[in-house]
Amino acid sequence: MAVGFDVSGATTSVYNGRMTIFVVMSCLMAAMGGLIFGYDIGISGGVTSMESFLKKFFPVVYRKMKEDSTTSNYCKFDSQLLTAFTSSLYIAGLIASFLASWVTRAFGRRTSMFFGGVAFLIGSAISGASVNVYMLILGRVFLGIGVGFANQSVPLYLSEMAPARYRGAFSNGFQFSIGVGGLTANLINYGTEKIRQGWGWRLSLSLAAVPATLLIIGALLLPDTPNSLLQHKIEIDKAKQLLQRIRGTDDVDDELNDLIKASEISKTMRHPFRKILHREYRPQLVMAIALPFFQQVTGINVIAFYSPVLFRTIGLGESASLMSAVVSGVIGMVSTLISMFVVDKFGRRTLFLIGGFQMFVTQVMVGGIIAAKLGDQGGISRGYALLVLILICIYVAGFGWSWGPLGWLVPSEIFQLEIRSAAQSITVAVSFVFTFVIAQSFLAMLCHLKAGIFFFFAGWLIIMTAFVCLLLPETKNQPIEQMDRVWRKHWFWKKFY
User: With the CA atoms of 270, 164, 407 and 312 taken in that order, what torsion angle do they form, in degrees rounded to the nearest 10?
Assistant: First the structure.
């Protein structure tokens, strides 16, 4: 067994193994779970700015946008029915994530991914064929079930398959695939908006079937993780053979022994949701709640869901708004790719702190420009609109190499096996709850707070950056089954052990 050193200077186990094509391909296919999430975020944000879509399903919003010269710029899209279209997915995802916890624990990670792909496929078919708002929201419910299962299982799969020293890069692939999905959706929206017959939104919604199909195929072809095989009483020899294939070496006894020990503890756990409330799991529980909450109050979903709407608010046209969303999507994807290459070198905390400061500065500047230059009617000059777009791109880049991927990475790697599935469900559920809250309330908040909405999110960025600085230990290069040592050495969390 090789020996390395952790951040405090004490010795820590580093398992044998190397990067293999098998683990790369497995993780690439599993990361397609992020593709369906990103595609949905991009598509829903884009179609809600398409005039043909609004005219058919939300005529009141359409009339305010086109004909009403008295309604404030900030309030033209304020419709609870319109936000229900976007946010209904997250209520369904919230409920589905707890069912997914049981499926993931009882039947394995790949089974949850398969169910997620099937539900998302059904949702895409219903959405594309919708003839009224009720059918549209039913489709969103199925999409939410798919996203709930995928978000619960895919981060776990990636963190368990990846070698410890490359786990950050592999797990960040989930956020990268979210970015790819969002960018693809923005490009499709830009193209389908130009279909003169007005049915382009149907094509945008129906094409969600493509990433869903990729996830289904991946789930059918992928092996389950060694952790999952041991948890389901599969013979140790089969788990060892899979681990040897994943790591590219026959010498996997040290890692296998740790997995067996964790599995034995896990099998004694009959009530994981009750167990996670125990004192010894308090640090992990706090992170399972705090990190996804903070990820949502960065304000990123304001940009992800409503960037075309936001750009229309400041006076850009329909096509220009959709193209602006494409530009910010490209920036987000590239920055996440950068994060994949540097996260295991510089660590999680460093990227959290840099990204938090970057997002804070740009939120304050965007809020200041809009407060000074955008009135209740009309728009702002093209120069200031371009400056807002540039600042939003800088903000998206900050999220792309910090809270975007790390908000999924850190929770997926800090939980012991016996509570891992339950804790991941809590992470996903908290994420969905506050995604729903932000999605459902943003347009009303924009109407009432106006430019102050950006200062609201900037305030949260100060709080979450301080939280990371004080309470989040560094987890890079730490084997996943030995992660409890980072808490035992932390100045605050060590008192819970």
Answer: -130
For residue 137, give the H/E element and its range.
helix 133-161
Sign of the CA dihedral running 202, 77, 183, 411: negative
C-alpha closest to that of 156 among 414, 401, 399, 348: 414
Checking 491-496 for CB contacts under 8 A at 24+ apart, the result is 493/282, 493/283, 496/279, 496/280, 496/282, 496/283
- Two tokens, residue 185: 């959706």
* Region class of 51: left (phi > 0), else alpha (psi between -120 and 50), else beta: alpha
Within 10 A of 80 (CB to CB), how many other CB atoms are there? 11
Closest CA to 94 of 468, 429, 430, 442: 429
Residue type for position 316: L
Q: Are 316 and 325 in contact (CB under 8 A)?
A: no
433 to each of 154, 293, 430, how far by Cα in Å?
Answer: 19, 9, 5
The CB density around residue 285, as the number of other CB atoms within 10 Å, is 17
What pLDDT score was predicted for residue 12? 42
- The torsion angles phi and psi of 478, rounded to 5 degrees, stand at -90, 125
d(CA 288, CA 424): 7
Question: pLDDT digits over 326-373, tens only?
Answer: 788 889 889 988 998 899 889 999 999 999 999 999 999 988 988 887
pLDDT at residue 3 in the model = 35
Residue 79 neighbours by CB distance under 10 Å: 18
The angle that helices 209-221 and 109-128 make with each other, rounded to 10 degrees, is 160
433, HSE (Cβ side, Cα atoms, 13 Å): 13
Q: How far apart are CA 204 and CA 139, in angstroms?
A: 13
Q: What is the structure's pLDDT at 119?
A: 96
**Cβ-Cβ contacts under 8 Å for 241 (sequence gap 6 or more):** none
Which of 185, 200, 181 has the alpha carbon at shortest distance from 54? Answer: 200
Beta bridge pairs of residue 147: none
Backbone angles phi, psi at 277, to 5 degrees: -80, -10
- pLDDT score, position 394: 94
- Residue ranges in the chain modelled with pLDDT below 50: 1-13
CA quadruple 33, 37, 40, 46: dihedral, nearest 10: -130
Q: How many CB atoms lie within 10 A of CB 401?
A: 28
**Residue pair 453/303 in contact by the 8 Å Cβ criterion:** no
Query: Strand runs (DSSP E) across 233-311, as ranges?
Result: none
CA 372-44-463 angle, 5° bins: 50
Query: Does residue 314 sit in helix, strand or coil?
Result: coil
Do 125 and 69 form a contact (C-beta atoms < 8 A)?
no
pTM for this one?
0.75
